[in-house]
Give the backbone structure.
Amino acid sequence: MAKSWSTPPREALRVAPGYRLADADLAATPGWEHGESAADKRLAVDGRHLSEEQERLFADGRSGGTRSVLLVLQGMDTAGKGGIVRHVLGMVDPQGVQLHSFGVPTQKERSQHYLQRIREALPSPGRIGVFDRSHYEDVLVALLVSPAEQRARLRERLERPDKYWKFNPGDIDERAKWPSYLEAYQAVLDRTSTDHAPWYAVPADNKWYARLAVGRLLRDTLEDLHLEWPAADFDVEAQKARLDAQPL
């Protein structure tokens, strides 16, 4: 039997008044006391629930529903955003997921309102939308990785030819701005975490924990929609009779 959270991640990771990013232990595993092996088993169980809830959402959208879910992943380079997409969103039907990454604005985008490209990327009804980084460095889920862990992950990219493609020399320059990033993230956390759209600060030095936590947060969010399978808009018994009457 899969182990359970001692404290649900929506409680353990919720950014509440007084939360200080600079004081966070980024190697901690808040609410989870069972280690990596048990986390893998728990994620597999959550994945089955997540897959079913995602299918309900997709079916609801195909039947005229208007609801969707947006997951915004924000974090420094090497924080593990790509791994979240592969390991968590990879557990659901890909046709129900819309993934978007925001790069440097194009010339056309620069001429528009800065939120225009965000509006165009919002998930359509029935879909889970994923923003790999946000439009204004805003976050729903902030993936937090320590300077020491980021250094180790950047070093790994430089030592492995199969990781060279992930490395950007500018990442080293960005490390020097760490204090400024902390200050900016803290300001956003303080001003925009609400009951309607809470922020969750996810320690990401342990990638397995970040994946486990985000997977459970997404599962809980979908379950909170209380979706039901769409009712048939046809006479079920009549269609069974038609099917049984066919000679083939």
Notes: The longest strand covers residues 69-75. The mean pLDDT is 89.
